[in-house]
Write a structure and sequence with these properties.
heterodimer; A: 6-stranded antiparallel beta sheet; two-stranded antiparallel sheet; 3 helices; globular; B: Thiol Ester Dehydrase, Chain A; 6-stranded antiparallel beta sheet; two-stranded antiparallel ribbon; 8 strands
Chain lengths: ~150, ~180
Amino acid sequence: MDKTKETKLRVARQFIEAIPHSRALGMQLDGLHDGVAEISMPYDLRLVGDPRTGVIHGGAVSALMDTCCGAAVMSHPDSPAGTATIDLRIDYMRAATPGQRITARAACYHVTRTVAFVRATAFDDDADHPVASATGAFTIERPQRGTP
Amino acid sequence: MTTPPTPRKRPEPVQVIKSRRDGALRALVSGVPYIQFLGIRFDRRGNELTAELPFDEKLIGNPLMPALHGGVTAAFLEVTAIIELSWSLLWEDMEAGRIDPASLDPMHLPRLPKTIDFTVDYLRSGLPRDAYARARVNRSGRRYASVHVEAWQDNRSRLLAQGTGHFLMPTPGPATERDD
């Protein structure tokens, strides 16, 4: 039991770190267990959305949130390996402080046979005031001849 | 029916108008590093914009299929929505002669709207091919705006994804001095 869990986590970690776009953004998997994932990415001048303020573009934060939510789904005990985003809503509470790392934490709080529901939050160094929050629905991809 | 000839102001040569509009669009787009990072370009027909996202290896989210990263799709939609909204504001100022596009460069642009929230509806998995998107400003008020955007790949009627975002309008600052 523990062994399959370990294998699953290892597979998820390898899977996430092999994603070309996650690599391009410098994403790092900081934590992954039972439906909760934490992924961070460094501040990068290439990701700036407003040249006058140096603030990271919301789109890059979306990519981080999407990856983190997907990882949370894959690490859920009731979920098989594959998932795809059905819908994702992101609320931007404030601009991320230029120069600081952004960390996303996602929790897959409910899973049905076909759908996983996820919530996530993103922070910079000021962990008390989130930069953004997200809610999403993800598919549960089961093998063709799956469990009863 | 004959109408007496009325003296009209001679219209500007088409090349002058085109280069002014293209210059303003270039200033708006080229100044955003993240748009360059993703490789997004904008094609202009009059005031209508179409965003293009040429396929690149670094946009892949699922190496096994392979498929575009969901975050890339979200970012592409959001970039398209923000540029469309900024462009619609810039266009009005430019056409009314309130802004001289020659004075625009990445550090002297009208402020960009800020995203309040953005919702992405994923309809199909992104193929390893070019993607396109067009946005429509459904409401553009003094303080808030609502923008809808659609993205597709090979077939315009088979959408890859659609999105809706709400934006906080830029407050007129030094770079956007206007009389109203």
